[in-house]
Amino acid sequence: MESCPRLARLSLCALTMDQEAMEALLQLCIANRLDSLTMECVDSYQYGQTVQAVVQEWASLMSTQPLKLEVLKFGSNRGLSISDQIAWAQRCPQLKVLELNVADEHDQVFPTKLLCEALSTTLLEVSHLHLTSNGLAMIDLALILSSFGPGPRIKYFGLGRNGMGAMFKSEVAWPLLDRHMSVLTHLNMGRCSMFWSEAVQHALATFPHLISLQAKYLRANDILGSPNEADEAICIPPWVCKGLQRLEVHIDGFHDKPAHWNALVLKQILTLDSLESLDIRLLQNDSYDAEYRRDTSLDLRLEAGLSVLANLTRMRRVFYSPQLQRAGKKELEWMKSTWPRFGLNST
Fold first, then answer.
1. Domain 35-44+70-338, CATH 3.80.10.10 — does that match?
2. How far is CA 61 from CA 30, 33, 55, 115, 211, in A?
3. CA terminus-to-terminus distance, the chain
């Protein structure tokens, strides 16, 4: 650490740290040299005891000495509860980015009250919040969003794996997040299986300043309604977030639907004329056979309407599964010739 006197950002990933290493990290934080700290899958020889000891020592040493950290991200670190993580964050009054994560918490109750008190008192600068916890219930989420106050504050909101039920289908959570629509730019629900297709469509149609949206999947009928053969030229209302630069969502639901639905969905993507990155890979395990998965996925073949996207001139990356989207060499060559910024390693 001493050999890097200008070190301001530190990211620790997939490490096993002994007592000496953890104490060195603690001293580095106490010296207030770090602006950003990320701990992802950090373990100790004592299976979490060292990590907990550092947090406890931190709490005693930092009770009167604030830290200047602005970014604090916790991955799935063994032995470090969300309560420990929140206690760590409360020592950082300038904190803007907070990501909390517990890998295994079958018997844990989410410390909702503790987090709400922190967000409304000591963590007033936090505008980026990402939560990963199986113990987070819908009522917990509503209380947490309420603790940000009535005014717009949340610029980034993310939720990891969660078993709370049909998230944001509820009339409770949406209005609380809608309060922040004038500043919300990033919505990351890519790991939340309960963020259903209707919620994705609602987000695309609600948040005008959205730059990045990550979600599991989006159904064609949630985009188009139920147009019939006579509705091919129907004027489908475009999504409101015209400044969206990154869309990560598997688009499906084309099985047994008219062929022109594929082109209609592509036309909706075309309305996102600032789009730079499109990821439509199927990220979740699927029990259906390969043929059905191909039939139900968005088709990126030229004969299926890929050329509709020609006006997305800012496109840099397209991530897709060739076996699902049925795109091949000629589609890749078309992308390279149509989008000058498009690179060979983009798919």
1. yes
2. 8, 16, 10, 21, 40
3. 38
